[in-house]
Amino acid sequence: MSVKRKRNLSATIALLPTWFAAVVVFIGTMAWSIRLSFTNSTLFPSSTYVGFAQYSKLFASAKWLASLQNVLIFGVLYVAGCLVLGFLLAAALDRKIRFESALRTIFLYPYAMSFVVTGLIWQWMLNPTLGIQASVRSLGWESFVLDWVVNRDMAIYALVLAGVWQGAGLVMVIALAGIRGIEAEQWKAARIDGIPVWRIYVSIILPQLGPALAAAGMLLAMGVIKTYDIVVAMTNGGPGNATEVPAKFIMDNLFGRQNLGLATAGATVLVLGVVIAVAPFRYAMHMRNQAKGGAR
Amino acid sequence: MNQPHPNGPKPARITAGRIGLYTFLVGAALFFLLPLYTMVVTSLKSMDEIRLGQIFALPATLDFSAWVTAWSGACMGTVCVGIRSGFWNSVAITVPSVALSVFIGAVNGYALSLWRPRGANALFGLLMAGGLIPYQIFLYPMVRAMANIGLYNSLAGIILVHVIFGLPLVTLLFRNYFVSVPEELCKAARVDGAGFWRIFFEIMLPIAVPMVVVVSMLQFTGIWNDFLLGLVFAGRDNLPMTVQLNNIVNTTMGERTYNVNMAATILTAIVPLAIYFLSGRWFVRGIAAGAVKG
């Protein structure tokens, strides 16, 4: 018994740095931030509690409300765009294609690059005076307009375009692996029944990819909440508040405007958002595992 | 991903469907390649040529001066030393961060799955929750705490931050890997009198080499591509390449030198791209393994 305890002691000691990180850094700093969100802290932390005043100020701020709306539009279109394009690419690549591995490489390489790089590339492509718009106009189509990055109504879609370009390859990889994992018998049976190929993909393959695509969508959605780099690189929140996002709002108030209370209130709202988004998913997984009789 | 295809050999006949399929794939390939192409050609043009507004045109003459400027002369605000220093900062940040986080992740995964000391599940749950939460809620207190212990705006500080924020992912991947290692192996070694560290270094770490490669690659590209943490914690002297790149492009006074900007952008992307192209399947395995998280 004492030998066992001694053995476990080494394991416990080995985990101490991680315990420290988990408890002090993850829980401790979060608690500290949440506490600050109930104070009137500006440049320096203050211990004057003001209840939910920072939260009311937050939700009275046009910029914050715009940022929530923007991240919602961006998030839905970005995740949906990546899932749809990624699945279509995977399904097309699965059709016994020449140069499959070269195409796979082409579709995935943007995923290796940072959001800063992605943002700058697309800022350049969409530059109205020198980018695609100018190029197409000089071909003779004088009224061609592609001014998304400087257009208030379109700037958010420029972010979506760049985001989908960066992230669709990830979904393709996951979907392709899933498709290749489906048994050949199902294909044979479906072909014998005379079901058209596209129907097989939609009605037989797609449902089986559900869990894999859900995981990919979840991963992308987690990225959406953290969206910051691509906005800073591409539009810096503008024009106006057209591409302002919560993560950037928080950073600006934290380090630029010295508005600690407001920034931490925003961060707390983001964390709540994640909890609300993840909880049903976790619960569903838990229930499914229970139904299967699994221990976890 | 190279198993024999489940439904027979490649079709020989050309049908309308096949043409549509290839049209879609070629169109998609163009969409994905166009930005890379325009970056490269823009970086090789002179500013006079860029002002013509022919973004897709090939450069009239190959002019590498923008590359030289981007590397050693481009301005960030008033400082004009190029992105060179950022490159070496990124190397100095990334290499130790990856080495440390992979080592700690491997130890964690091994201890959590094969030893399960008291509280193992609680720790794992905590880490997973921590991995999901947006960084913004941790930042300000961390800045204060780091400043108090003298690590704010230092190389050691930014490395520590990367290691801490990498813990959830590396621990998850190694834990999932070690869970599949037969427990008998560990038990037999214990019966033979080997301790925690000896089993780790002599048995488990060699077994886990494939995972070490995958996690290193994932962490390397992730930390190289980081912007937020480098911006907040690295300090002026250690700013990673991504932050310097953004400064070069988005804080320039006067006319933007797009050729220099694009050369700097390519230089920033070149390391992760090289990893991707050289490691191919390992990279794919890495992101597939990482995607299981969530």
Distance between the termini of chain A: 27 Å
Q: Give the fraction of residues assigned to helices of chain A.
A: over 70%
Largest sheet, strands/sense/barrel of chain B: 2 strands, antiparallel
Number of H/I helices of chain A: 12
Distance between the termini of chain B: 23 Å
Low-confidence stretches of chain A: none
Which overall shape of chain B is indicated by the principal axes computed on the Cα atoms?
A: globular
Secondary structure category of chain A:
mainly alpha
Mean pLDDT of chain B: 88
User: What's the number of helices of chain B?
Assistant: 14
Family (chain B): Belongs to the binding-protein-dependent transport system permease family.
GO biological process, one term (chain B): transmembrane transport
Subcellular location (chain B): Cell membrane
Domain ABC transmembrane type-1 (chain B): 87-279
Write structural notes for this entry:
The complex is a heterodimer of chains A (296) and B (294). With 296 residues, chain A is mostly helical. Chain A has helices at residues 2-36, 53-60, 62-93, 100-112, 115-125, 132-138, 155-180, 184-192, 197-225, 229-234, 246-256, 260-292. In chain A, helix 5 (115-125) crosses helix 7 and helix 11 (246-256) runs antiparallel to helix 12. Chain A is globular, with a radius of gyration of 24 Å. The model of chain A has no long low-confidence stretch (mean pLDDT 88). By secondary structure, chain B is mostly helical. Chain B contains 14 helices and 2 strands, in the order H-H-H-E-E-H-H-H-H-H-H-H-H-H-H-H. Chain B has helices at 16-43, 47-50, 65-72, 84-115, 120-132, 136-148, 155-179, 183-191, 196-207, 209-224, 228-233, 241-250, 258-279, 281-291; strands at residues 75-76, 79-80. In chain B, strands 1-2 form a two-stranded antiparallel sheet. The longest helix of chain B is centred in the middle third of the chain and has 32 residues, at 84-115. The interface between A and B is large, with 104 and 102 residues.
